[in-house]
Design a protein that fits this description.
Layout lengths: L1 H25 L4 H26 L9 E3 L2 E2 L3 H16 L1 H6 L7 H14 L4 H19 L7 H12 L1 H6 L6 H20 L3 H15 L3 H20 L4 H22 L6 H7 L4 H5 L3 H16 L7 E2 L10 H13 L2 H6 L3 E2 L7 H24 L6 H20 L3 H17 L11
Antiparallel strand pairs: 1-2, 3-4
Helix pairs in contact: 1-6, 2-6, 2-7, 3-5, 6-7, 6-9, 7-20, 9-10, 9-20, 10-11, 10-12, 11-12, 11-19, 16-19, 18-20, 19-20
Amino acid sequence: MIVELIHDALALAACYWLWRAWRTWFGGADRRVTWIVAAGFLLRAFIGEALFWISYLRLPIARSLQLGDGVWFFAVDGLGYMAYADELVRRGLMAIVVLPGYYPSHAYVQILSTFVAMLGQVSSVALFLNCAAYLATCAMIVRLQPRVNGAVLFTLAAVAFGPGTLIWSLQPLKDTLFQFLIAALVFACARWQERPRLGAAVAIVVTTFALSGIRWYFGAIVWIACGLFFALAALRTPHRGRVLLAALAIFVVLSQAVRIGGKGDVRGVVDRLLDPRRTVAALQQPSQVTRVIVVAREGFDRTSGATTIAPGPALVQPAPTVAARVVSGGTATFLPRALGQALGLIRVGGGRGLWLVAELDTLAFDAVLLFAIVYVARSRRRVTPLFVFVLLVLVATAGPMIYTVNNFGTLFRLREMLYFLAALLPVTLAPESSP
């Protein structure tokens, strides 16, 4: 009884803090910013609470789609994350810190477990975490430009109202927190670009470590892209030599942040490449890096699913070729399912009534990508090292994803990384004027 009262008191305090954070970050902001952020927050809060209580109380509303305990069918992973969090909370604080055993996306499990320990063992705790991560993401986006302009409003609207970004934030899933970590990384890189300092370097390392603890391959891509980012940023400073030496040291530290952060997930030649004791041997086998992508694709091919992406009649051959896989993957990524199947490029089943959201998300993804391309092409603002960094991460993430992932349910979630990176591109250009 005492524990429940403590959880209730902490939950009230946390909700008050969330309100104060919104007032502090956006209370005096541009009215357009305030309305966009507030609308996105209220959508998440009210819809998330409604879904939680319907499932938690097993109300006779879409009962076949409920998994119970506040979780729905599109968040099967959420049941696992909550089970991990409950287990770690019962084991105590040290178990959350050191993780006794292997846990998928362990950084998210640790953060979720911390919130569960403070606020109670119910899945609605994840909704609070997601709402807090959403507000913090919006706050960093606003601060990437000295003034509120079209790019800032576009990026905020994409984050607030994107069908995918919205639906994954309603359940105990890692996607909203992962988006926040990407925003934090980009924000830290922006500060390094402006003025290389220790604080920005530490923030880059910490966020890369956390990203690797959720999706190790993204951390590895960030590490590689940081090499070019640091070099370009150093060329803009008057003390190039010292900045380059500092950047080299950070680059080495980042490799270990990826290796340690992704421990248990990083395997094969990538693990050897990140290990200083085996780096030279790994560099002598560059072709083995592509083997990681091939093995991942083979894993998807062996795993059946209702939403498996198969080449359509226009691409069917005796055996699927690499080109057919790339075309079908690209079609599923960029074209609505109805159009892709009408053209004979893909065949995808399943969905359980979520196809409307998926189709809307595809259209939103295309719109965001098109807007970013047009805005960058027509803008007279100069390209920055930060822009190159985000673009490189976007392309390097999209390529392997299109070829590897052949399950639309998985692709639907992973595509949010591309969606968010594309939305960030306009705000990474040089500002129009000083603040």
